Amino acid sequence: MIKTSFLPCKTLKFPLAKVEGSRQLKCKGPRMELTLVQPDDWHLHLRDGELLQAVVPHSANHFGRAIVMPNLKPPVTTTAAAVTYRESILKALPTGSNFNPLMTLYLTDSTSPDEIKLASCSKVVFAVKMYPAGATTNSQDGVTDLFGRCLPVLEQMVEHNMPLLVHGEVTDPSVDVFDHEKVFIDTVLRPLIQRLPKLKVVMEHTPLWMLLGLLSLVKKFISLGLVAATVNPQHFLLNRNALFQGGLQPHNYCLPVLKREIHRQAIVSAVTSGSKRFFLGTDSAPHERRRKECPCGCAGIYNAPVALALYAKVFEEAGALDKLEAFTSLNDPDFYGLPRNTSKIKLIKTSWKVPESFSFSFGDIIPMFPGETLEWQASSS
Fold it and tell me: What's this model's pTM, rounded to 2 decimal places?
C-alpha cells in the first residue's frame, strides 16, 4: 500500500555497534509511506563467532526470515551442524526478536542422499547450497563432481522438493572472470536442468544477461515454477566501474563480479516488470575491514543495514513501486511453499545518512554506500 502523509522523522537505529559518520536529519513536510508484508532475505551470510554477534541485529531489524548460507569454516554439511548453527544465531538475536533463520546444507562430493532425508524431516533445513569448489569465500570444500558423486543427492532433493541454491560460476582459470557465469550456464546449469527437470533451482545473485540465456532455454520449467532467481542490491545498482572509480574500491568487490552497465539495466528492467520468478536475496556478506583492505581482499558487500532502502530506490526510479512488495515479500515464500509473513513493515520516504562504518571490539565493518544519503528508511509497522 502506498500513501502520502505527514510523518515525523526518526533517527535510524543500528544496534550493538558504535556508528561512525552518522547524523540526525531533520525532516519537514509530507512523506510518502509504503506498508509492506514483512520481507524475508533469501540469501544471507551471517558468519559465526564475533561477526555473527555483530551483524545479525541488522538483518533481524528488517527481515522476518532468512535463508542462511552454510559456507563457514568448517562448512555446514550436515543437518546436525545446521541445527547447532541455528541455535547460535538464535542466541545472538536481540531480545524480543522474532527473526527466523532458515538453514541450508553445503553440498560436497561426499554428501549422502540420507542426509537429504534427514534435512527434509528436520523442519530446520530448507535448501542445499552448491558452490563450485574455489568459486568464492570458504568454497574450497565445494562440488567437483556434480553429475557423478552428487547426482544421487540431487535426485533425492527432487523426491523431497528441496531447492538447490546455485552459485553459478566456473572456476577454470583459463576462463575470463567476466565470463564465469556464461560458461557455467553452458557447461553445468543447462545439462543439470535437462537431466533433472523437476529439481527446484534458485540462481543466486544472478546478473541478468546470464539469466536470460537460461530462461530462453528452460521456459517450460519456468512456467512450472521450478526455476527462480534472487537479486541483490549491488547487481541492481552498481556496474564494474564501481570497482575502479577513484582507485581500487575493495568494498565494492563481490563474486560474481559486477558487470557492465547494460547488464545492470537489464536486471532492473526484468525484475521490476513484476515477474514472480524473481525475489529478494541481499547476499549481504560482512567482512572485517582489514580483510577487505589488504593485498588479497575478500569478496563480499555488507548491505544488510541499507538493503530495503536500496530496493525501494530501484523500484521507485523504475516507476514500479506497486511491484515492490511482490519482489520483497510474496514471490519468495510462494516459491519455497512457505506461508507469507503476517507482520508488516513500513518504508518511509525520508533522507538519512548511511554510517561510514560500524565499529566493534574486533574491528570495523564497512556497509554498502558508506556516508551516502538514502531516500527511503525502514521501520516496523
Answer: 0.89
